[in-house]
Structures are given as structure tokens and as C-alpha cells.
Amino acid sequence: METQVGTWTEKKGLAQMLKGGVIMDVVTPDHAKIAEDAGACAVMALERVPADIRADGGVARMSDPGLILQIMDAVTIPVMAKCRIGHFVEAQILEAIGVDYIDESEVLTPADEQHHIYKHDFKVPFVCGCRNLGEALRRIGEGAAMIRTKGEAGTGDVVEAVRHARAVLGEIRRIQNMPAEEMMAYAKEIGAPYDLVVETARLGRLPVVNFAAGGVATPADAALMMQLGVDGVFVGSGIFKSGDPAKRGAAIVKAVTHFNDPYILAEVSRNLGEPMVGRSVSTMPEVERLAGRGW
Amino acid sequence: MKIGVLALQGDFAEHIIRLKHIGAETAEVRLPRHLDGLDGLIIPGGESTTFGKLAVAYGLIEALQAFGQSKAIWGTCAGAIFLSRDIHRNQPLLGLMDIVVERNAFGRQVDSFETDLDIPALQEIAPGSGPYHAVFIRAPLIESVSGDARVLSALPDGRIVAAQQGHLLATSFHPELTEDDRFHRYFLKLAS
User: Fold this and answer.
1) Residue B67's domain is classified under what CATH number?
2) Alpha-carbon separation of residue B45 from A17, A183, B8, B83, B174 (angstroms)
3) Which residues constitute the domain of residue B162?
């Protein structure tokens, strides 16, 4: 009997198991347990949530593997962790300690301003951010088995998440109606591998799971992203920077499942306490925006 | 034939694609009333802790237990955990099948694997057909079966990965992630 590990089906498949769910940023084992109890389908283990990374400034790196291991011990759901863009040694370390998914993330300070990690070389699957279809397909070409739209992390402002989801999903709708002879020029225009453009047009969706991220702070935000057509939602600072993380986390989980039912959304949105303090992206200087990182 | 797929979280859309492919009508199930008029139900892969949380919140535990008394239910991976009687930890379960399940029995994602299985029961669906290619993702193991439950398939070392109890079916792997529709056709037969 031949047994294969680390296959493309396995890597893509774990993301398929996360669909319709909420992946929550956690910075301690206690947070991780609260997230699991709230119904999170996975957690992202990190030292600081994006809102704090923003506030602290300086260089943001991979978290201490000791902290990630403690979080892995605390919960039974999958644990993800972030490495810097292009920092393939941080990725090797995360694979060695056995995290379930690696996020090659613009929230950390990039280690390479031209190249992302060649992710096909790893057994562990990767998720990467994107702002448009070209960026999504370049990341998939490098081996990302899951995509998330970037939004603008640590702001609590959903506007960029909406912009990026609309960009990706709108471009997919466009290529579905595109005659075959136009696809090569289009692939060139958006800087995407031709074969993946053709495959995406045929499927009518990205060939891997696509979550929304970056600015989701309320159940309504999460349901908005689901109705726009993403497969699930990452919530970073929105839960543990709010007044009542357990309650808000559980409400966002329910909102993602019942995203099409306004009556349930109305019920779960009630009495959640203070949301995270937001920061409007439209007045934010360009240099403070994280979404532009990624090539 | 109308088959529901529990759509609280997980890869329910993949099951719906396979079911439509073999001519079944489908419905997404998020609330107890969505079970009305169904001939069977699939509980997909996903996170069993998330299923449990949402099922308790919306009164689905009792509704699914009642449904399973007379109708066919098939759980894949997290769905198999949810159908089981005991998993050695405290989390909401349907307890419909007399099986004991160990979560994440093979390890973490880097230990997930694909392999070929010998599943004699599938010969009823496709006589003379070959081995079944199974995809295991952070998979649970069926530690033991008792009562009316019987083993459908095991790995060469004897560890159980599929079981059946009358009209109830549990697999630790994901037939919805492959093009091979023999398992979905097998389930449709159980539901009819």
C-alpha cells in the first residue's frame, strides 16, 4: 500500500475543512481556549495582534516557537502561525514544530521585497494574502493552498476587506465571460500564471479556499464578507481587542454560519459590549498601510 | 431522493457537488426545520467542536438524534466524531453510533495522508471495482465498534477507518474530496 503525505490535495483539503468558519488571532493559551469555546474552526498563534503591532511599530517577526507550542498544546483545533514574506527559514522552523498552516503575512515586516517563499517545497500548507486576482494567482502559483483577501489588519475598518474581496470576486466574474483568445493577454496584464487564469475561469472561483481578513470587527462585518462570496473569515484584533471577547467571538461564529439570515444576525449582534476601537483607513497615511506589502 | 448536508461549518459544499453529480436533490441544514422532508443527512468534514457549539445553540442535537432514529446519516471525519458515542473528552456529540473515536489520532496536518483502502462493501455498488483512494486530514480513528456497529474498512495494521450501524455510516476520511462517487452512491442506497 502506497501512502502519500504533504500532497496538494492534503494541503488544499485542510482549508476546505475550515470553510464556513472563523479563524481567530490569539496571543496566549488562555485566548486560544476562549476562541475554541467560542466555536473558532482554527486559531492563529502570534505574539501581538495586528492592532498592537501597528501601535508598537518596529520590526514584526515570527512569534517565539515556545509560545506557539503552548498554544498548540492548549487546543484541539488547527493552529496557524505567521512568518514574514520571503522568510523561508521562519517557515522551516514553523514546519519543524508542527503548526498546521503557515500564514506568509504582510502583517509582519517583509524579509524580502521581491520574492515570496516557494511554498511547494514544504509539507505544511500556506495561506497568503491578496488584494486582487493577479496577486492571488501568483501566490497559488508559488504553492499557497489557501488565500485570504488582505483588507487592512488591525484597523477594525472593513472597507479594505470589502474592496479586496470585490476586486478578486469581480475579476473572476469577468474572466468567466472572457473568450479564450483574450485570456493570455489578460494573464499578462494582471501578472498571473496563464494556466491558473484558465482554471479559475473554468471553476468560476479560485482553485483554493478564499477567506476574508483585515478589518472584520462585528458579526455584521463577518456576514457581509460571507454574502459577498468568501468561504470564511479571519478575525484578528476584532475579538481580543473588544470588551467581551468570548461573547463577541461566539457571535461572529454564529454570524458566519447564518450569514444569510438577518433575524439570527440581529439576535447575535445584541449586547456584545464595546467593539475594538477602530481606525479609519481613509485617513491613514500610505506608509502605515500593510496591504501594499506583497509582490 | 433528497439528502441534506449539515452546513454549520466545514466542507458541506463539496458533499453537495458530489450528491448532485449522482442525481440527488440536496439541501443545506443549519436549523432543525431544515430537516423536514429529507431522506438522509450527511455531516461533513470540519471542526467537531464548532459543530457541537452551533448545534447546541440552535437545538440541533435533539433534532438530529430524532432524525437518526429512522433516517440515514453519514458522518465524514468531524461528522464521524459527531455521530459517535464517546471520544474521551467533554464535547457535545449525537451519540447515535456505538463507536468510540479518537480525535486527531494520526497527529497534526503534516501527518495527514492519502492511501488506498480495501472496502468490500463498495462491491455492492460497483462489482469488481478496485481499491478506494482515501484522503485523511487531521483524521480521527475509530478506536472500537460495539453493539450493532460493524467495521467497513481498516488500515493494513487493523486500525478502523470506516464503520456502519444499520442506516448510519462513519468514515474517518473524505470521499467528498475525490471524484470517486462510490461512497456517495453507497449512502444513497442506505437512505432509500
Assistant:
1) 3.40.50.880
2) 6, 35, 11, 12, 7
3) 2-191
